Amino acid sequence: MKNLIIIMIAFFGCYTSTVIAQEMGDKEKMKVFEGWAGRWQGEGAMQMGPGEPKKSKVDEIVQLKLDGMVLLVEGKGFVVNPATKEETVVHHALAVLSYDKNTSQYKFKTYLKDGRSADAWFTVLGDNKFQWGFDVPGRKIRYNITIDSAKKTWNEIGESSVDGTNWGKFFEMNLTKTE
Predict the structure, then answer these.
(1) What structural domains and CATH numbers belong to the chain?
(2) CB 143 within 8 A of CB 158
(3) Secondary structure class of 102 (helix, strand, coil)
(4) Which residues pair with 145 in a beta bridge?
(5) pLDDT in tens, 75-109
(6) pTM, two decimal places
(7) Rounded to an integer, what distance in angstroms lies between the CA atom of residue 162 and that of residue 166?
(8) What is the distance between the alpha carbons of residues 11 and 157, in angstroms, rounded to a whole number?
(9) Any signal peptide, and if so, which residues (predicted)?
(10) Which residues sit opposite 24 in a β-bridge?
(11) pLDDT one-digit tens code per residue, 101-138
(12) How far is CA 91 from the centre of its chain?
């Protein structure tokens, strides 16, 4: 009985140490996003066919959740009716970013207010440079993000491609951290 108790204590001690080490590794991978947390505001522009890009005011709220293990991003785009001064929501998205220790990859799940969602890939390209994207039928979509923590700016450019080689810009967003 005494030997069984010693074995159980050793097992649970090793198990707990492994879990803590894995969690610390995941937290380290998520630390690169600490500067994202806060409120960001600015302007976005999306090219929807011929003509001028459609512009909107943008408000993004970014939060670290679960003790820094998950990043929650909620963004809204608004247009203002010049006659009534009323704001209309033209874009509303929610995204969840985490690090998957089983695959050693970031997971980025996005949701739109119209019910669409995507399981996107996400890559850290270097200091404050990130890229994420997904495929839709007949097209690849990617977004390049640059965050300047010192200037408190966020620039994001969306591009699409039919062949994965030639890319065309369809979206740009420029935000400033306000909180």
Answers:
(1) 2-177 (2.40.128.20)
(2) yes
(3) coil
(4) 130, 156
(5) 999 999 989 999 999 999 999 999 999 999 999 99
(6) 0.82
(7) 8
(8) 50
(9) 1-21
(10) none
(11) 999 999 999 999 999 999 999 999 998 999 999 999 99
(12) 16
